[in-house]
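User: My advisor, Dr. K., asked me to get a structural model of this assembly before our group meeting. I'm new to this, so sorry if the format is off. These are the inputs:
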Amino acid sequence: MAAEEQSPKFRRAPPTVRREALIEATLACLRKHGREGLSVRRIGAEAGVSPGLINHHFPSICALVAAAYETLSMSLLHSIRQHAREDEASPRERLRRFYEAWFAPALLDPGLFNTWLVFWSMISHHAEVRAVHDRTYAAYRAALESLLGELRGNDGVPRFRLRSAAIALSALLDGLWIEASINPRTFRPAEAVALCEDWTSALCAGALPSLLAGGTRGQPRAAGRRPRNGRGPALPLK
Amino acid sequence: MAAEEQSPKFRRAPPTVRREALIEATLACLRKHGREGLSVRRIGAEAGVSPGLINHHFPSICALVAAAYETLSMSLLHSIRQHAREDEASPRERLRRFYEAWFAPALLDPGLFNTWLVFWSMISHHAEVRAVHDRTYAAYRAALESLLGELRGNDGVPRFRLRSAAIALSALLDGLWIEASINPRTFRPAEAVALCEDWTSALCAGALPSLLAGGTRGQPRAAGRRPRNGRGPALPLK
DNA sequence: CGCGCTGCTATACGGTCGTACAACAACAGC
DNA sequence: GCTGTTGTTGTACGACCGTATAGCAGCGCG
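Assistant: The format is fine. Below is the predicted structure of the whole assembly, which you can bring to the meeting.
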């Protein structure tokens, strides 16, 4: 017996690649098991290392999650952007390709949705994760602003407030993505794309009034001064 | 000693009111502690009863969550609807009041957002919770369809596909609500209302093409037949 | 008043969690 | 080849989890 295989019990790795491997393992665990997958034992098993190694490379578990959040978010944004590029296409066409990528099967995986829920649920309690959200949300909005910006100046497209437009479009994309992830049978991806296209059409037609108001200025100027009585909505909630 | 207070160690309650109290305690815990608050010990302490009582009134912890989900969701919908009612207002005005209620301070509580994340995170693994989502999402959509339906037929408002319009509006509301809950400083509630109002304006102006296509029929008819080459978007994702 | 039904408590159990820490071993440099 | 560095392991610890179960006790009813 004692087959002289004698392979080393483990292999050392420079901190950088080990950290990256742990991040990848974290994403795999979150995708497969959601919140339940977020434990040093599970992630360690997924990465083929001992649980204790995680605390050796990351100050705490939520630092690892923050890193995984940033990695995944930026990777997805890059993929979607890449798919939307297509140089010979018109700005309007690139925007449609962006929508199609957003509702591609790869993005509608329930595991991905559950992963995102874990990220979101940690935002309020962990400053690092919140910082990642702020950064990545800004990056997504910037990508949309870039695509929308190319739209302006085209034939008959009026000037509009870029930042607010990106906020609205981002919300529409997110809202549709969430419901599509929760219940794929509510509507088909093609319908989600069509609804986003509708919004784009309205924007190009100048049919979104508050976006036309103030050029590219930041703050919405009272947004059409409330015509009703002054008391704000105070829901009883009970 | 032995001050003759002698108050009873506990009070019995009929199952119905006890169940309701436990549901209320669950919502309080979720609001205060998010996912961490979802434990029999914490909920029992919040309700002033022993932890074991929960498994006595509910077959499992997720049945309790499902009940809490349905209670909160329907309560919020009722409040918002109530606020939008206002009989002497025009349909368009009622819709705006609906938006204002949606972005009222009571709805933008971070605790409420975290509560919702817990609900969402249980959908994929627990059929009961999924059923509640399907029911409540349908109820919200029905409320929107009702409000949007009153819009149709008004001066110059074209016929549009009610169900798809409600889906889009619901997504826009959800997406804005999420970002407002995560980071209140991205935009002010009034801007969110304005962006929803914009969408309504576009709808009334007939500026949302795919919604005009097929009357009130259910399925979107290919939504503008893809003009590009046939291959669907297949993101490399890596 | 006393009895019994049953809502309710209290405890115990097996499991998983994050973290800490001491010992081990892979690999580079001499 | 030996040695030192340090990436890595394995274990131990205390805390919390959900569930099961045996028994206590509030309170309606006769």
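One thing worth pointing out at the meeting: Residues 8-12, 39-41, 51-52, 54-55, 60-61 of chain B lie near DNA strand D (CB under 10 Å from a C1').

User: Perfect, thanks a lot.
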